[in-house]
Amino acid sequence: MDDDHLDVRGTIFAGDGLVSEKCRVLLNGLGEFGAIVVDAETDRILDINTTALALLGMKREEIVGREHHQFVSPAEQGRSSAVHAGKAPEPPEWVLRCSDGKSIPVLKSVLQIEVDGRKALLESIVDISARKKAEEDLRRSAFHDSLTGLANRALFMDRLDRCITRVKRNKKFLFSVLLLGLDRFKFLNESLGHEVGEQTLVVVADRVQKTLRGIDTVAIQTDITHTLARMGEDKFTILLEGIHSNEDSVRVAQRIQLLFDQPLEVNGQEIFTSVSVGIATHNGKSTSAEAMLRDADIALHRARKQGRGSYVVFDEVMHAQAVERMTLEFDLRRAVEQGQFSLVFQPIVSLTNDRIVGFETLVRWQHPKRGTILPQAFIPVAEEMGLIVPIGLFVLREACRQMKLWQDQFPSDPPLSVAVNLSSLQIRQPDLAKQVKNILKETGLTPGSLHLEITESALLENDRHTVSTLKKLKKQGVKLHLDDFGTGYSSLSYLHQFPIDVLKVDRVFVKKLDKDSGKSGLVGSIMAMAHNRGIGVIAEGIETLSQLECLKEMECELGQGFYLARPKKAKAIGRLLSRQRA
């Protein structure tokens, strides 16, 4: 007899064709394994043990005598018949149908047996529901966001790739990507805590998802489908498939933005926020999912610049600008590595005796192909990339070194001073005060000869940390200037919190000066209040004799601008100081 057959004559069957009591004891002794005995010819169940009965949720008399395939999931009945007929191999996994209509996955093994020349099947089954659930949970964790339950980046990019493949077969198929960014989410996180921030993301995901479910019939009345995913800390993406035009995507964006007209209910408190949206519709040119997501990100960046709650549709102009920006970023990184920066110095002049008392340091990028690039063309990009920190350190060190040389060559009382601009990112560096101290020691420049300039926006962006840093610098003896005063949000009454030595009146206000209105204008008011508080004033952007005379009448101590002197390289400044000394 074959090894996979079992001769149990006189043991399995009793005289009436039913399974004997001895066999039933054996079946029930299988413990966690369910067991079913099936007549191989008639497919009728001859017996079943208590474990299998509990699994199916039925009584023995409800099962014995019935056809076996009735307890197999309808989707697998054809496969079951083929297996029993010997036309298909026995698969290890099956799905059984229970009495309550539910299906249970089982692992099954079958043993062929012979009884008095008749064939029977002994099926052993084990419930693998828990294992299947664990596998599904693992699969979901690989493709779904753990916080919101939405699709994650991997799943979204896979579906986006499929859309790009589909459009190659069907040129009329149109789809778009909407990238949603929560406005001021970083501020919300820092002010209310990360727990509230996370719950806000959950509420936002739920609100957007519910709205998207009604888009087919309510929003744009088309057969589009959608995938909503979480892509990052404060960003969500929507893949819209089957749209007719950009207008469909715009209407979806507008509908989503309307959701945030009402506050979010988060942990019992109302949260007010808005959403900016970048839209990228497939144009036949994008060849990858990453390219489309990049286009949507460019559009989102532009939308946020327009103001909170805006949307922008990506176009070819943005693409060209994005390519130019990428080239600039690449060149800027290389410039930092290769040291392609140089300094020029604009004189700061005493308006009482017309003598140079110091300089403002300005950086220039000496591009190997494009020539000299002014700071307004690359400093904002450097700040976004974080490169302003190494650039700023270079400027600070070189300015101090050069000023020490001039002080030694052209001694004066008080000594010449040098002003260096600090970005908000530099001020946020925890070791800024230490870096300044080390550079002063390295170059031999006295702290009082270094004037650090900060803007109003940088001053107020992170005031607690900024105050601490400025106080450390002040304690070292470094002078602090508030640049572009009047263009931001501060006032002189607010400045008592900050150890500011000098206000620099912005060129916008200096430009409006004339002999008749100067004293009654904003510049006059600033100087009067600054003098009352013992704060010095430097007027920027002096371009005409009229402006200069007006400032002198108001007893403004210091000024700078093209009318007085343009920015010059170090050698030219040296010649200028030589003439002044003579």
Task: Describe this protein's structure.
With 582 residues, the chain is an alpha/beta fold. The protein has three domains: 5-131, Beta-Lactamase; 144-314, Alpha-Beta Plaits (2-Layer Sandwich); 335-581, Alpha-Beta Barrel (TIM Barrel), CATH 3.20.20.450. It has 21 helices and 22 strands. The strands form four sheets. The protein has an eight-stranded mixed β-barrel with strand order 14-15-17-18-19-20-21-22, surrounded by five helices. The chain starts with a strand and ends with a helix. The model is unreliable at 1-18 and 216-221 (pLDDT under 50).
* pLDDT < 50 stretches: 1-18, 216-221
Mean pLDDT figure: 83
CATH class category name of the largest domain: Alpha Beta
User: What is the percent of helical residues?
Assistant: 40-55%
User: What class would the helix/strand composition place it in?
Assistant: alpha/beta
Largest sheet: 8 strands, mixed, barrel
Question: CATH topology of the largest domain, which one?
Answer: TIM Barrel
Assess the beta-strand content as a share of residues: 15-25%
Q: How many β strands by DSSP?
A: 22
Distance between the termini: 122 Å
CATH superfamily membership of the largest domain, which one?
Answer: EAL domain
Query: What integer value in Å does the Rg equal?
Result: 39 Å
Oligomer: single chain
What does the overall shape look like?
A: elongated
Main sheet strand line-up: 14-15-17-18-19-20-21-22
How many domain modules? 3
